[in-house]
Design goal:
Strand content: 15-25%
Distance between the termini: 23 Å
Shape: globular
Number of domains: 1
Helix content: 55-70%
Length: 143
Amino acid sequence: MKHRERIWVAVFLGLFLLDRLLKRAALAGFEREFVPGALKFDLFRNSGIAFSLPFSGPLVWIASVGILAAVSLMAAREFRAKRYALAGAFGLFVFGACSNLFDRVVYGYTVDYLIILERSAVNVADGMIVAGALWLLLAGRKK
């Protein structure tokens, strides 16, 4: 692995750890309003799936684990083939998904903490998942 790829892995791990730290702060009761009515740090227990869609149950668990396993295998395949850009995109997705899946296993819900416009609740892991997916789309367009 080249120096640049090591840096990417360190960044992904750092984002994962930042997300875990912010989730602990939210669970401990830390609250702060940054922009009144627009951006707030507060605990939101997301029992739905992505974007708080109200789906739950064993099929959601099976689908979540299946998707995570498939994306992890794709990341490993790209890494072995030395296609580090694609491996990085998949890896970013995987690190974010692992953080949210950990929440579901331990707490029974995903810990969200950034409340946007008093309607949407997200976390750093959500951003990692979206960024990884966008990275994959952009990488696919370059081919």
